[in-house]
Amino acid sequence: MCGRFAITSPPQELRAFFGYGEQPNFPPRYNIAPTQPIPLVHARRDGAGGQSRAFLLARWGFLPGFVKDTREFPLLFNARSETAAEKASFRAAMKRRRCLIPADAYYEWRREPGAGKGARGRPYLFRRANGGPMAFAGLWETWIGADGSEIDTACILTTDANAATVAIHDRMPAILEPAQFAAWLDLDAENGDAATHFLKPAPVDALEFFEIGPDVNRVANDAPEIQAPLRAASRD
């Protein structure tokens, strides 16, 4: 799963990487949690009938269109890529509302052997080995309430961990490369079959990861210091 992540690249760098036309200006965020707003990139029809990429802010927590009462529906911030196309909650979005979710890092917690059910574990930071931004595969949906109110919502698709990251957690976000963006976002690939084969573990050498301190456990802690390697944090 992926329950926390960070977006720290400058807005202009993310705009160039993802190729959307808007010019949003947003501050770095080091500890994004479910239910908070997150940026995403999706495809839209342009005036000539083609497709372009658009930037959108959405709630991290997917709401399918059939939901009547949001208070009684579980918080879907991740979806398993292997089964999303078969699940009623995600089936429609897998066909026509695939998206890219920008990130610079994500966090996972390593459960210690013998730890109790409620134990959080030791936090680790994962990021690209080359220091560049990442694109998580995601799904989005505009939920419409009975009163006509609208909420744009999204979730991150996950896949099996690779041979390196499995030491910390058995799942990881599905990370797409720029050469795959167009096919993943393509509105004309209705069934999504041509895109789903991209949803696989990242190569072993694509990511680096290290243990960090427990400050990340508290959502209110949203500063660069939470990303310091544990050994460096201990010396300060």
Task: Tell me the number of strands.
Answer: 13
Q: Could you give the distance between the termini? A: 31 Å
Profile the largest sheet.
8 strands, mixed
Radius of gyration: 18 Å
Provide the number of structural domains. Answer: 1
What would CATH call the homologous superfamily?
SOS response associated peptidase-like
Mean pLDDT: 92
Helix-strand sequence? EHEEEEHEEEEEEEHHEH
- The DSSP helix count reads 5
Uncertain regions spanning at least 5 consecutive residues:
none
CATH architecture tag: Alpha-Beta Complex
CATH topology: hypothetical protein yedk fold
* Beta-strand content bin: 25-35%
Give the class-level CATH name: Alpha Beta
Shape estimate: globular
Q: Helical content, roughly?
A: 10-25%
| Class by alpha and beta content | mainly beta
Written overview of the protein:
The protein is mainly β and 236 residues long. It has one domain: SOS response associated peptidase-like (hypothetical protein yedk fold, Alpha-Beta Complex), CATH 3.90.1680. The protein is 14% helix and 34% strand. It has helices at residues 11-18, 91-96, 178-185, 193-196, 230-235, and strands at 4-7, 29-32, 37-45, 51-60, 78-80, 98-103, 105-110, 122-128, 134-144, 150-160, 171-173, 175-176, 207-211. Strands 3, 4, 5, 6, 9, 10, 11 and 12 form an eight-stranded mixed β-sheet that branches. Strands 2-1-7-8-13 form a five-stranded antiparallel β-sheet, with no helix packed on it. Strand 3 and strand 4 form a beta hairpin. It is globular, with a radius of gyration of 18 Å.
